[in-house]
Design brief:
about 40% helix, 7-stranded parallel β-sheet, globular
Length: about 290
């Protein structure tokens, strides 16, 4: 059986190489600045992560997003979803149920709290039309990858019947453990994909953060093509530094977006870079334009 312990161990063995290894600024935008309209290709749906623009009030970012042609602002909890809806926006990746990035499903002592938290938020998300809710593996803290996977699957399986009932997907983010999130366990696409197999439900998938996985394993396009059935969502970010995704960094995002679209992906790509320019919305506009294939 796919989600058996033996199958997961074989999966790990087969991928051993990978496993080792402000405010009113929106007024600068006008109708002519709109990027995504009926004249553009629009192969991908576009979102933005609110935390990268924390100095811009949410309502102002909603107004700017509308002008930029975005359809989502994400990494927001239930208290903000109504505000998004007021502007015709969704939250492509909801949050609010996690304990922290470091305390996740890989340690069984967190399962009771996590199951409680996600059991509460899943029906609320479904009612609000939110399709994805983020989750995290947590840090290893000395735990090996096989045990971390088995523990994570055990906790996540408890939530799958409810997630399936409400049509909400729990999405575990892939983060790098080299630079930003030392000791984080879900730090390779192969490990996350094997966990998806072990959980055995279409309501558990991965958030492929391009910035993090370029740092961790590289080979971004080939990895996306290989593991795309397990990926529900994408985040952008320039490497190194997680800043603008233009020619100042090492990745060529138009080719990455083309590869994503060619897999038949129907979800969202979210801008999650930290703007260095004073005009942050100009950087956001540029990022969307680069990704609008």
């Amino acid at each position: 059986m796919k989600n058996s312990r033996r199958s997961a161990i074989k999966k790990i063995a087969g991928n051993a190489a990978m496993l080792t290894a402000a405010g009113s600024v929106f007024n600068r935008l006008n109708a002519s600045d709109k990027i995504l309209d009926e004249k553009t290709k629009g192969a991908l749906s576009h979102s933005v992560c609110k935390w990268c623009y924390n100095d811009i009030p949410l309502e102002d970012l909603c107004k700017a997003s509308e002008k930029l042609g975005l359809s989502s602002i994400e990494l927001l909890g239930p208290n903000d979803w109504e505000t998004l809806q007021k502007y015709g926006l969704t939250c492509a990746m909801g949050n609010g149920a996690e304990i922290s990035l470091t305390e996740g499903f890989n340690h069984t002592e967190h399962h009771d709290q996590l199951v409680k938290n996600y059991s509460e938020i899943i029906p609320i998300a479904a009612k609000a039309g939110i399709k994805n809710v983020i989750c995290f593996s947590g840090n290893r803290k000395g735990m090996d990858d096989e045990t971390g996977m088995i523990n994570s699957a055990k906790g996540l399986r408890k939530l799958m019947p409810l997630a399936e009932q409400h049509g909400v997907t729990l999405v575990m983010e892939l983060l790098n453990s080299k630079v930003n999130h030392r000791d984080y366990q879900c730090d390779h696409t192969a490990w996350g994909s094997a966990l998806c197999e072990m959980v055995g439900s279409e309501r558990f998938k991965l958030l492929y953060d391009i910035y993090h996985m370029q740092i961790m394993e590289g080979d971004v396009i080939a990895t996306i093509k290989k593991f795309n059935p397990y990926i529900a969502h994408y985040h952008t970010g320039g490497v190194p530094g997680r800043n603008e995704i233009d020619e100042s960094q090492e990745l060529y995002y138009p080719a990455i977006m083309k590869a994503i679209a060619e897999t038949g992906f129907k979800g969202f790509v979210a801008q999650e870079f930290i703007p260095k320019r004073e005009d942050k919305l100009a950087s956001l506009k540029q990022g969307i334009d680069i990704c609008n294939i």
